[in-house]
Amino acid sequence: MKKRMIMLIIAILIIAGLIYYLESLKTNSSINTAEDLRTTSSLNEGKYTKAPELTGISGYINTEENLKISDQKGKVVLVDFWTYTCINCIRTLPHLIEWDKKYQDRGLVIIGVHTPEFSFEKEYENVKDAVEKHGIEYAVVQDNDYKTWRAYKNRYWPHKYLIDSEGFIRYDHIGEGAYEETEMKIQELLSEIGEDVNEMEISTLEDQTPKTQLTPELYAGYNFALPRLQNIGNKEGLQPDKIVSYTLSNEIKKDTIYLEGSWKSNEDNLQATEEESSIVLDFTAGNVNIVANTLSEPLELEVFINDEYLKEEQAGTDVKFENGKAFILINKPQLYNVIKGVYGNYKLTLKTQKDFTFNAFTFG
User: Which CATH superfamily is domain 218-363 in?
Assistant: First the structure.
């Protein structure tokens, strides 16, 4: 009996020892994991910049209010600075939309930070309409006062920042292009959080970045044009906040806006103030866009190339045809596609009506 008691006590001590040993292994494992995370975070802190938080946001689309980058810890975040009339931004959107669909279930969060260039781009409904038009389903926030823009020390549209699961900026890219490189970086950061994405094929969407010499973006508002040395070609020039009656000169210089008729020079646009007003531009490109609006009822913008109505084979996606006339119906503030044709040098003439405004020409 005594011998059995001793054996039982020994067995109990052995079991207790095993339990203690196994518990100590679990504790050490937890300590090591926490130490590993702290070490990784510490290394990143010395090597990379911590991503600034979204700040000064005035509107939220496709997301709940008070969206924060810090709430996405453990995920990979792509912050994209854009504005809806920027053709360079527009050409990047198909890639962002595809990445969102491919990787959102694997830990990628895309946040489009809409920082407006022109005053009408601050309007919530205008941005919401653009988001719906382009089929954007990821979160878009309105940075109307440039507070997030300044927090990132940004200066460009578009500009993408990739933020890792610990909140550090690991990659950024200015402008169009580098889509393969960006997607490979997305996969790398997703792999760091345990997602098996390295075997996923890289997108084969076309890179629409222009590869030929183009007429540069041309601004109409004096607050944008004059600092860039982009005055109009008429001898009267832009006269801030004044209405001027312009006549065309005999010589039309390339890559320069010319006006005919009565126009008012505003901070961010030129405004037609009489019924028969025209714009003339000698440009080099295959595609031409105009950022335009109407201050009253919808109006027609007639389109001529080399002094003849635009032909259908050169027509942009917003051009309509009726009784031999080529025109664009201007009914809201947005970017309108005027020309979509063969690359070359052409003279564009746009004839319009009172209350038509335009902010800029862009090319592709």
Answer: Galactose-binding domain-like (2.60.120.260)
